Amino acid sequence: MWQGRKVWREVARNDVIGSRRGGACASRGNLDTRQKTVFTWVGRALRATPLQGRKILSTDRRGCEGPQPSSLTAALPVTIALGLDLLLGDPPHWPHLARLTGWLSERYEEQLTKRAPRTVTLGVVFWFAVVGTVVILYLLVRRCSILIDPRAALLFDTVVIYQAIAAKDLHDHAEAVLESLVQQDLAGARDRLSWLVGRDTQSLDEAEIARAVIESVAESLTDGIIAPLFWSMIGGAPAALIYRAANTLDSMVGHRTYAYEKFGKASAYIDDFLNWAPARICGVLFCLGERKRLLGTIRAEAASHASPNAGWGESAMAHVLGVRLGGDNFYDGKLARGPVFNPAGHRPEVEDIRKSLKWMWRISAMGAGLILVIALSISK
Questions:
Q1: pLDDT of residue 332
Q2: Cα(261)–Cα(254) distance, rounded to whole angstroms?
Q3: Position 18 in a domain
Q4: In DSSP terms, which residues pair with 323 in a beta bridge?
Q5: What residue numbers bound the domain in which 259 lies?
Q6: Which of 11, 40, 84, 217 is the most exposed place for a label (fewest CB within 10 A)?
Q7: What pLDDT shows up at residue 53?
């Protein structure tokens, strides 16, 4: 995406820069108790998992391999990762892939731009440098985990997939804005909204705040939930890792500003490519959940968006809620005109935020179920 920053990506950037105070929903409850419960559960699951056999090299031309992982073993990391996200979300100050990627992004950008102009080519070098470093670190840690115990490697992969998902964190931040609106605290709602979106929030009224929250939830459904699950199915933890790193780089440098118009182009285009299929899957899931023939309308409205992917979730959410989304926004005081989704809908209200969160969980459950079924079928 060229414009706007998703909730967890904004938090990642702020953790790196350290320019803001704690998140709007920093309180996560008793984390110590949750940690004990979660890791006891994970430990039991891993002990019950059969060890994956290693490939055995053979001089026989036919070759032979050791025991292959069962379909349960293949789907287990994704299942546990979903459970961890539901229970823990993204606890503040815990090590996180997005924060690591953000830190590397700033270091590499600083060093590379000292030595060369901000061209598209340098942006490509930058992308491969950051993502390559993240992948190398992953391979080193995973190799060490295998030497300790194959189940340790499985646990590590589970943590990687868990950190690629951001369902609970998205819900918590959206709910924080909702709570402020319910209390008629517009100033607090605007402040908390700034953690969800990149647009100017200082002068937004209640309806515009509600619109911004719903649009963020709709768009983040793709890159915070469906896309990580999709890439986990395609390539396991390594694919989820690469996706999360690429998505973070888009939030860091993928902007149409003087500094990043060329330098961030590769990061933005790669993120668009990685989200292409998940965005359309998300739109189809909305149609299935609503049981209406909306796909043609969603496709037509999404095509009018500057992003090839963002319009799918926003258009679908607008139609299932019966609200009007999109339109004009201000970024750093500059007007940015955008398409309108479901022009016949009513202006968003506070209650529509609640409905959007219910749809978020419904689509997340449908997407997770579909992806797990496909993963189990492929691994048989």
A1: 87
A2: 8
A3: yes
A4: 346
A5: 7-44+70-379
A6: 40
A7: 38
Evaluated on CA atoms 23, 274, 295, 361, the torsion sign reads negative
Contacts of 208 (CB under 8 A, 6+ apart): none
**d(Cα 46, Cα 41) in Å, to the nearest integer?**
9
Dihedral over Cα of 335, 341, 346, 351: its sign: negative
**Lookup: tokens for 76:** 């287990």
Rg of the chain over Cα atoms, rounded to whole angstroms, equals 21
Q: Which residues of the chain have pLDDT under 70?
A: 1-74, 379-380
Q: Which tokens belong to 124?
A: 């490509």
**Domain count along the chain:** 1
Largest CA distance in the chain: 74
Tens of pLDDT, residue by residue over 85-125, are: 999 988 888 889 999 999 999 999 999 999 999 999 999 99
Q: Is residue 50 part of a domain?
A: no
d(CA 193, CA 214): 11
CA distance 133 to 123: 15
Contact criterion met (CB below 8 Å) for 172 and 89: yes
- For 319-376, the DSSP string reads HHHTB-EE--EEETTEEE---EESTTSBPP-HHHHHHHHHHHHHHHHHHHHHHHHHHH
Name residue, tokens 């105070």.
Answer: 21
Instruction: Assess if residue 105 is contained within a domain.
Output: yes
The three-point CA angle 169-294-280 to 5° equals 50
β-pairing, 340-341 vs 334-336, is: unpaired
pLDDT at residue 44, as a whole number:
53
Neighbouring C-beta atoms of residue 47, cutoff 10 Å: 8
Q: What is the pTM of this model?
A: 0.82
Rounded to whole angstroms, how far apart are CA atoms 46 and 155? 8
The strand pair at 325-326 and 334-336 is best described as: unpaired
Read off the pLDDT of residues 217-231 as tens digits, 9 standing for 90 and up: 999 999 999 999 999
User: What is the Cβ-side half-sphere exposure of residue 195, based on CA atoms within 13 angstroms?
Assistant: 26
pLDDT of amino acid 371: 84
Q: Which stretches of the chain are assigned E, i.e. beta strand? A: 325-326, 329-331, 334-336, 340-341
Residue 213: phi and psi, rounded to 5, are -65, -45
Dihedral, CA of residue 168, residue 172, residue 174 and residue 175, to nearest 10: 130
